[in-house]
Structure formats: C-alpha cells, structure tokens
Amino acid sequence: MFSGSMVAIVTPFCNGLVDEKGLQELIAFQIEKGTSAIVPCGTTGESATLSHEEHSRVVALTIEAANRRVPVIAGTGSNSTEEAIQLTRKAKEAGADAALLITPYYNKPTQEGLYLHYKAVAEAVDLPLILYNVPGRTSVNLEPKTVERLSQIENIVGIKEASGSLTQVTEIIQRCGDKMAVFSGDDALTLPILAVGGKGVISVAANIIPDRMAELVNSFLQGDWARAQELNLALYPLFQAMFYETNPIPVKTALWLMGMIREEFRLPLCSMSEWNLSKLKDVLAKYQLLPPHQGEGV
To answer: How far is it, in rounded angstroms, from Cα 173 to Cα 219?
Structure first.
C-alpha cells in the first residue's frame, strides 16, 4: 500500500504559531521532488508540543495541500490509548490515507499492553495503521512476536522500525511476510533495511534532500542496487548531521539555513549550539544546499 521515500515533515512555526503558508510550501517542495508520502505530526513534526487543535489543523492542512497527489500518513500516536483513538478518528475524518502510531511512551506498557493498545485503535478506527517503534524515545521495544500478533489485524499494515537493530527488522519480516510492510525509521539504516525486505523509509533527511532520498529508495526497489549503494555512501555524512543534536533541531536548522523556514522551535527544544551549527553549515555547504550568502559550493 505504501512504499518509497516518505518524509516525516517538520512543523514550521512563526511567532509561536504554526506557519501554515510555510508548511504548504514545504509540502509542494516535497511533492515536486518525488517524495512518495507526507507524514505530518510525527516526532520530527514536534507533535509533543502541538495542542490538539493545532495537531488536527496540521493534519487537515497537509491533506489539503497534498490534494491526493501523494498519500498523507498522519501521526496520531499517544501514551493514552483513548487519546490515540480520538486523534486517529480526527485524521480519518480529515481524509488521511493512514495513521502512524508511536508506541506509548513513559508509562512503559508490557508486550500484552502494547498489543491491546494497537488492537483497540484498530478496532475503533477503520483506517490503515502503521506501527512506530522507537525505543530510544519511548523506553519500550515493540518485539517481533508482538508485531506478528498485530499483523493478523487487517488494518494494521506496516511498521516504522527505528530500534536500530537489523536483527529485529529481519525477524519481523521473517515472521510477518507480506502482512506487514517494514519502513526504516533511521535514514542511515534505510539501505540495509531495504536489503532484508523493507519497503521504504519515513525519513528525516528527506526534508532537505527529498529528490536524493527518493532516488536512493527507488533505485533499490527497481533493482539498481549499485546506484542505491553509491547514494547511501554519498549521503551518509548528511544522515549523521541530522542527529548532531536531538531531532528535529538539526533538520529545522538546516531548512532555516536553506531559506525555507524560520528558525523557531517550541521549548524544551531550542536552537543548536554554535559548535554544532558550524559543523552543520560545513556539511550543508559540501552538499550544495546553502544559498550563496551562506557559504561556498553553491
């Protein structure tokens, strides 16, 4: 149902409010450059600091701006099952093509609790659901045997895997087969995950290099493995740069340096340190991503 390079899109702000015009421009840029799907209100979209009203508005605006040209996969996860159900319902009402649900964070549910959480959302909302496993953020790992159980639920169709474990990804694919599409949740592991049977990536780096991420994934899926490997190695330093500090600080800073959004975060996220900002500028210059006044190589 979904494949390719999908962007975990940032939420631009302007004077404390969601920058709606800026978001529309980012979506147009993504679609023009070959991104396969737009994923608003994920971790990269600073969903944790959006009000419920802002969250619903960002999802609705993304659907409107995409205008059915590419799918919209709305981030609707929460550590409250009831809240996740309500957010997913609103995403469906707005016209989302699917929902992405992070594992409940902070309350550290058991594997049975995780199963029951996702089962409840799937039963409450008839919408394709993509699980999102990122233990580094949530302190809980969605284990392959639990993913296998969830794959038996008809509208749970995929998982964004950001555990960092290729062994775990391989086991999920081995257990679930065609019942569960696996997407990389880590740009640097996209190629290895594709190599063991993944279908694409939900990408941070695609915010700034959508065309190159799309080419990387599409090259592999079309059988040009040499080109995919070449791109992966070439882009690896940029993948690393996107995590000089906590995501989405580096990628939003990069978009600001590229002249695409304002440099604005919501606390507790804040501007990059001068040291990391200098390193980021150097990397962006090497990839010819800075306008002329920002550095050489353009």
So the answer is: 21
pLDDT in tens, 195-208: 999 999 999 999 99
Please tell me which residue, 217 or 295, carries the higher pLDDT value. Answer: 217
* Distance, CA of 11 to CA of 187 (rounded, Å): 19
Which residue range(s) make up the domain with 207? 4-234
Judging by beta carbons within 10 Å of its beta carbon (0-12, 13-18, 19+), is residue 139 exposed, middle or buried? Answer: exposed
Number of domains forming the structure of the chain: 1
CA-based nearest residue to 38, from 47, 48, 28 = 28
160: annotated active-site residue: yes
Residue with the two structure tokens 């008839």: 126
pLDDT, residue 298, reads 30
Does 111 have pLDDT greater than 50?
A: yes
C-alpha angle with apex 43: 39 to 44, nearest 5 degrees? 70
Instruction: Let me know if 286 is a catalytic residue.
Output: no
Within-domain flag for 292: no
Q: What is the pTM of this model?
A: 0.94
Of the chain, the end-to-end C-alpha distance in Å amounts to: 38
CATH at 221? 3.20.20.70
- Please check whether residue 70 is in contact with residue 7, taking contact to mean a CB–CB distance below 8 angstroms: no
* pLDDT of amino acid 168: 97
- Count of CB atoms situated within 10 Å of the CB of 64: 14
Catalytic residue among 132, 199, 244, 281: 132
> Among the options 90, 92, 115, 160, which is catalytic?
160
Nearest to 144 by CA among 109, 112, 176, 116: 176
246-271 tens-digit pLDDT? 999 999 999 999 999 999 999 999 99
